[in-house]
Amino acid sequence: MLKFLGFRSVAAVLAGSAFAVVMSGCGVLSIESWVVIDSAKSTGSVAIAGGTPQDLTDLQGGFLGLIQVNTNALPGPLSGPIKVEDVRIATGGPFGTVCISADAGNPSTGNVSLNVLAGTGSATLNLNLIATALGQVDKISQSTSLNLSGVSLTTLLSASTSGSAAGLFDTTANFSSTATILGLPVTFDLALTVTNQETLPPLDATAASCASQFAANGLPAGLFYGVNSKSSYLAPFFGDNPQPPLVIALSDFGAGPGSKLQLTTIGTFADSTLLKDGTNTQMSGVFSSSNVVLAPGKALNRVPGAIAVSGAKPFFTPFPTDIPQDFQINPSVTVTVPAGAAYLIVAPFSPDLSWGDNSGFGFGVAVTVQ
């Protein structure tokens, strides 16, 4: 397969679009990301036993979706399965906090179709969820459709260049379903505006009571954070300009010095610019006292607040760009947060110290606080 490396801009690609899409068909491509609710643009209501609808408040959270398509089908439409791997939605209302999670025993699945040349697409999903309010638990199921017309040749190639699929699936969705709470039929209506991104923003105090339900029905390995395949905190070889690494505030999941974390890699990435998953799984991390990561070329050690950790396998590279404080994550590691650490910085490792030619949108790390 040829690479995208010879194309210097999206404009150049569009000039020869037919050739570009034919050469981009290279195998199975996974896109795993959080579909996040835009609280400012989303609304919801609840009606009890057919009564007057009452507004839901502080609607927040989202769901983790995994889409898989075979890019060998290009330049024709892409199609494949979609699976919801985690759901963490919370809202306030007349019942207090309502928690909506995945149903671990009954996965939500469906199909997706994308025509990147026409800029059209859609997904159909059979959603199976668990709703909790006032200590009452009910299972709800509904079929729904998503408009994915934002996925075009331009946006897909832009994602390939940046290494991030964030924003590919900006859309709206309407949900209506009935649950039984305290013996009464309760109808929930949601009008959601959503976008997709690598991480789920921290939920506020409204969702605190939902934590155990989310953990019990979410991804078994823990809370998923997407990792850009083109990112690094290490100094690259000359000429390469990696994307910023994933920086996680430990406070986002209630951790701090002394906390024990289990970190598990999810998915793979490719050490090439081809649009496919690849087979690479190498990932490293470093704790830091700050969220500062210096720009490439500014220093050999780009993490000035790096803090060493004991009990984990050191991540060593036989190059001057190596830093002594980082550790290996893949396939899984349990570490204790060291004193002074406030952030965890994570990135894939590219053996040639060149990240700009990596690809893949399905690589990430799952975090569990033990």
Q: What's the layout of helices and strands?
A:
Layout: H1 10-15, H2 17-23, E1 28-37, E2 43-48, E3 54-55, E4 57-70, E5 78-92, E6 98-102, E7 108-115, E8 120-133, E9 136-147, H3 153-162, E10 171-181, E11 184-197, H4 211-217, E12 223-226, E13 246-249, E14 260-266, E15 283-288, E16 306-307, E17 327-328, E18 332-336, E19 343-348, E20 364-369
Antiparallel strand pairs: 1-4, 1-11, 2-3, 2-11, 4-5, 5-6, 5-7, 6-8, 7-8, 8-9, 10-11, 12-20, 13-19, 14-18, 14-20, 15-16, 15-17, 15-19
Explain this structure to me?
It is a single chain. This protein has 370 residues and is mostly beta strands. It has two domains: 1-204; 221-370, Jelly Rolls. Helices cover 8% and strands 41% of the residues. It has four helices and 20 strands. The protein has helices spanning 10-15, 17-23, 153-162, 211-217; strands at 28-37, 43-48, 54-55, 57-70, 78-92, 98-102, 108-115, 120-133, 136-147, 171-181, 184-197, 223-226, 246-249, 260-266, 283-288, 306-307, 327-328, 332-336, 343-348, 364-369. Strand 10 and strand 11 (184-197) form a beta hairpin. It is globular, with a radius of gyration of 22 Å.
Which bin fits the share of residues in helices? under 10%
Number of domains: 2
Question: What is the strand tally?
Answer: 20
Coarse shape: globular
The proportion of residues in beta strands is 35-45%
What distance separates the N and C termini? Answer: 44 Å
H/E element string?
HHEEEEEEEEEHEEHEEEEEEEEE
Structural class: mainly beta
Summarize the biggest pleated sheet. 11 strands, antiparallel
Rounded to an integer, what's the Rg over CA atoms?
Answer: 22 Å
Number of helices: 4
> Which residue ranges are poorly predicted, with pLDDT under 50 across at least 5 consecutive positions?
1-23
What's the average pLDDT?
Answer: 88
